[in-house]
Amino acid sequence: MMIFRSTLFLATFLFFMMTPGFSSARVLTLDDCIAEALINHPDVVRARGQVKRADGTLWQSFGAFLPNISAGGSVTQVNSEPGVRVIQDQLYQTSGVSKSYDLGFSAGMTVFNGGQNVFNYLGARADRSYFKYLSEQTEQNLILTVKTTYYSYLAAVRTMEIREEAVKRGEEQLKLAQSKFDVGSASKSDVLKAKVQYGNDKLSLLEAENAVSISRANLAYLIGVDVNSDVEFSRETPKRDYSGSENEALKFGLSNHPGLLSGESNLTAARYGVKSVWGRYAPSVSVRVLRGWSNEYWSMVNDFRDEDARWTISTSLDFTIFDNFSRKAAMASAKASLNDAKAFYYYQRNSVANEIKKAYLDMNKAVEALKLADENEAAANEDMSLVQEKYNLGAATILELLDAQVSLITAQNSKIQAEFDLNLAIASLENAMGKR
Question: Is the CATH number 1.20.1600.10 carried by domain 25-66+113-283+323-433?
Answer without folding.
Answer: yes
